[in-house]
Design a protein that fits this description.
By secondary structure, the chain is of the alpha/beta class. Helix content is about 45%, strand content about 15%. The protein contains 21 helices and 18 strands. The strands form 6 sheets. The protein has a 5-stranded parallel β-sheet, with helices on both faces. A 5-stranded parallel β-sheet has the order 9-10-13-8-14. Strand 17 and strand 18 form a beta hairpin. Helix 14 crosses helix 16 and helix 19 crosses helix 20.
Length: about 475
């Protein structure tokens, strides 16, 4: 079998020779061109596993070749060589369809790593196992929106360009990022997802770039950061809009230079990661109001991927419900009663697929014999025809006056609770205990007083750790 053939396009004889020697030592065949015209001629004569072009050529721009190869030779990745510090040119090339880029002066280790990644895309036998075997996508659904999304992900997986995933909370941004990684040439390397909003600001640099032993109090061992952990693979920056400005500067340098320096180290080390960022915020507006750096925005937002909200693909509900219930209760462990799917279709799902999972998990706790009924969903304000779908409690007597009366408003100077969820849980626990004590722990009567079903009361008692007194 013949070796993969690479086309090198550069008008500097010394650099062209260096690239040729490096590629030949990798066991590759190499053709060279000094102009756009020569490159076009060679592209019309032979197939190439990779095209590597300078951005400035005597008779035109490498960007012209990028666009032509992306349009007419879709199976051939093309990478560009940019001048040192010309980050803007690299971004323009990536947007035009370039697979990746290397900066002058060319670091040969970086060049070799980029070439190996490109060859995996050109060789079907080296493609990720998931794409060869037609592995089921993590993104469930057959609606036109989901089919278009999966097709776009398949195209994006062939590139090394940074991707910015936009979408509402709960729409599956991390699943989309994992799907891109799984279909890319980096599939065999790590995928590291980082929630930028969950890291204390004082620890961010150490978490992202690592630190040397003794770099600060408590640094008892050397530790790698997220960039080193994802080396060779994909680093997902979730909720990237929450990064403080000081960290944004350091992140920008790491992405541009592809090098990081651990805290306490004197030299930088190279890292090879593909960056995928995600946020539910509008990053362009964050740039306008000054909370997000414009230069970092352009580095991350090379290619945009927008996920549709669940309300725009309700045709996928049956598949989603089946998959979620199979995971929660096992195959055949739960089923829907009459009208449940229609009730779900009538709900807007502001929390998207994540909210659907929560609704079904809660409904399973209320369901009898694994059959979920409409009343188990507890969907507030869902519409079914012209009627709101809400759980129907059993007929109940008038609630006791002390339970029906709203609590008095707290004094204006009363301290706010330091932990709102715990405070609300305690309030709910006190009310349920009052109802149970009033009915001598008769759950049916207590549920009637509170206007909820016995199943709901049983669920709340279990969640709030309420037990009947010992006889």
């Amino acid at each position: 079998m013949s070796s993969p053939r690479i086309l090198v396009v550069d008008d500097e004889p010394d650099l062209r020779e260096l690239l040729e020697i490096t590629l030949l030592k990798m066991g590759l065949d190499v053709d060279s061109a000094a102009t756009v015209r020569e490159a076009r001629t060679l592209l019309g004569q032979k197939p190439y596993a990779l095209v590597l072009t300078d951005m400035r050529l005597p008779d035109g721009l490498g960007l012209e070749l990028v666009r032509e190869v992306a349009a007419n030779h879709k199976s051939t990745p093309i990478a560009v060589i940019t001048a040192y510090g010309s980050a803007e040119n690299a971004v323009v090339a990536l947007k035009a369809g370039a697979f990746d880029y290397v900066s002058k002066p060319v670091v040969l280790d970086d060049l070799r790593a980029m070439v190996r990644s490109a060859l995996k895309l050109s060789d079907p036998a080296a493609a990720p196992a998931s794409s060869q075997a037609g592995e089921t996508s993590r993104l469930i659904g057959q609606s036109p929106a989901m089919q278009a999304l999966r097709a776009q992900i398949g195209r994006l997986a062939r590139s090394q360009a940074p991707i910015a995933i936009n979408g509402e909370s709960g729409s599956g941004k991390e699943l989309a990022a994992r799907e891109i990684h799984a279909q890319s040439a980096r599939a065999g390397k790590p995928f590291v997802a980082v929630n930028c909003g969950a890291i204390p600001e004082a620890l961010m640099e150490a978490e992202f770039f690592g630190y040397r032993k003794g770099a600060f109090t408590g640094a008892n061992d050397e530790r790698d950061g997220f960039f080193q952990a994802a080396n060779g693979g994909t680093l997902m920056l979730d909720e990237v809009a929450d990064l403080p400005l000081a960290m944004q500067v350091k992140l920008l340098r790491a992405i541009q230079e592809r090098r990081v320096r651990k805290i306490g180290a004197t030299v930088e080390e190279p890292v090879d990661v593909r960056i995928i960022s995600a946020t539910h915020k509008d990053l362009a507006k964050c740039v306008e109001n000054g909370s997000f750096r414009q230069d970092l925005f352009y580095r991350l937002n090379v290619i945009e991927l927008t996920l549709p909200p669940l309300r725009e693909r309700l045709d996928d509900l049956p598949l989603l419900v089946d998959a979620i219930l199979a995971r929660l209760a096992g195959p055949g462990g739960a089923r829907l009663g009459a009208g449940v799917l229609e009730a779900l279709r009538g709900y807007a799902f502001p929390g998207n697929v994540r909210e659907l999972e929560n609704v079904l998990e809660r409904a399973l706790a209320f369901a009898d014999d694994g059959v979920i009924e409409v009343g188990d969903l507890l969907l507030k304000g869902a519409k079914l025809g012209d009627a709101a779908v809400v759980p129907q409690p059993p007929a109940a007597p008038e609630p006791a006056p002390e339970l029906a009366a709203p609590p008095p408003p707290p004094p204006a100077d009363e301290a706010l609770p330091s932990n709102l969820p715990d405070y609300l849980s305690q309030v709910e626990r006190d009310i349920i205990l009052r109802a149970l004590n009033q009915t001598q722990f008769n759950r049916t009567q207590a549920a009637s007083l509170l206007g909820i079903s016995v199943r709901q009361l049983r669920y709340q008692m279990q969640k709030l750790d309420i037990h009947a007194p010992e006889p």
